[in-house]
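in:
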């Protein structure tokens, strides 16, 4: 287990720092940040991007209670690693990224005017890819490169 010799405070600090770093670089207007920012309360997307969905504090508390601490912190470590790796790949492809908590509904509008809605409440540590042309997909973070190539290049 990667956290076996760490105290809970050290693990909490690592998780906190990872979360803060994932939001680093949030720039742009408050209504729609396009690099690694967050959406306005409307949660309406009409341009190609990747939405990085992370659990809410309430979901994290629930996860902590439902599994033993080693399993929880292993899952957190894995998810932070894969999210960071996927985000770095998306950066290298110059994909706009939006960080969003796992709460509410996102509405995607394609160039042709089709509307797709996705409920985030059941998602945690996931990436939604939207190419602006077809229905958004939930990508496999472990295989983000192949999902990107198959979907975003349409």
């Amino acid at each position: 287990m990667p956290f076996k010799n760490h105290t809970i405070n050290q693990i909490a600090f690592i998780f906190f720092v990872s979360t803060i770093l994932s939001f680093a670089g949030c720039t742009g207007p408050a209504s729609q940040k396009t690099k690694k920012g967050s959406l306005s309360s409307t949660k309406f997307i009409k341009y190609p991007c990747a939405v990085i969905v992370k659990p809410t504090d309430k979901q994290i508390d629930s996860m902590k209670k439902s599994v033993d601490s080693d399993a929880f912190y292993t899952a957190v470590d894995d998810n932070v690693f894969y999210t960071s790796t996927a985000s770095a790949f998306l950066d290298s492809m110059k994909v706009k990224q939006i960080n969003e908590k796992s709460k509410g509904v996102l509405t995607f509008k394609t160039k042709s005017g089709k509307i797709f809605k996705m409920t985030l409440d059941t998602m945690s540590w996931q990436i939604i890819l939207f190419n602006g042309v077809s229905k958004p997909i939930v990508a496999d973070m472990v295989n983000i490169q192949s999902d990107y190539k198959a979907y975003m290049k349409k």
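note: Confidence is low (pLDDT under 50) at residues 1-41.
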